[in-house]
Amino acid sequence: FWRNQIRNRRVRAKVGGPPCETWSAVRFVQCETGKSPPPLRSVAKPWGLPGLTIKQCEQLHLSNMLLNTDLLFTADLIECGGASVAEHPAEPTWLPNAPSMWRLPRVQWMAMRNKNQIRPGQTRPSRKKVHRVVGSKATYIARTFEEASLPRVSA
Q: pTM surpassing 0.70?
């Protein structure tokens, strides 16, 4: 339904943020209590590690479906001249085995194919509580449009 709406130019923009819970770098860091959630992905296996529990597989499956849907909508919007905004944690460069949506071949291909359209924005800190500790995490905001190119919408 939504892809047809985009292709028929009834939907001109989307804002999305695929779930970060299965991509979180926290899964690669041991906390003081030793109760960190286990990694579900890696750089080598970004769609999921083998040997996961049924609950972890279900969590991973839902996250993968939402991410793929977001990427399909983004691709359709690019083809139709629409706008897309995506928010997702920044690449965890300090953890070489931690996965990142931004490293996926499909995302990198879209960025290369649309050099003038997909621009990861500034890294922005956001406050988040992880393992009962409040800290900040870096977040990328990517967009497929120039701010000046958006039409003004009146309420």
A: yes
